[in-house]
Amino acid sequence: MIVQCCVCGKIRHDARWIIPTHQQLKNEQISHTYCPLCAHKTITEYRKNRTLLLSPIIPKTTPQSC
Ligand SMILES: [Zn+2]
Question: For the chain, is the Cβ count within 10 Å smaller at the N or the C terminus?
């Protein structure tokens, strides 16, 4: 079975991630995952987006005046 990165399409070959040839993908069961590079990118993006999403929820410290 081939393990393929779902972002960049590279496959794991021994301990390395390489761009697959058509022959390597032919008649193979493919399991999708993230290669270390895309995993790092995805986590970084996720953290950035999460910060953006959470920022409007932070309560304002300015007191209301009557
Ligand atoms: Zn990748």
Answer: C
Residue 25 structural domain: 1-39
Quote the pLDDT of residue 57: 62
Phi, psi of 12 (to 5 degrees): -80, 125
In the reported structure, the alpha carbon of residue 53 is separated from the centroid of ligand 1 by a whole-number distance in angstroms of 25
Q: Taking the CB of residue 13, how many other CB atoms lie within 10 A of it?
A: 13
Ligand 1 centroid, distance to 36 Cα (angstroms): 7
What angle is formed at CA 48 by the lines to CA 46 and CA 54, rounded to 5 degrees?
95
Q: What is the number of structural domains in the chain?
A: 1
Q: Tell me, what's the pLDDT at 66?
A: 67
Q: Is residue 46 part of a domain?
A: no
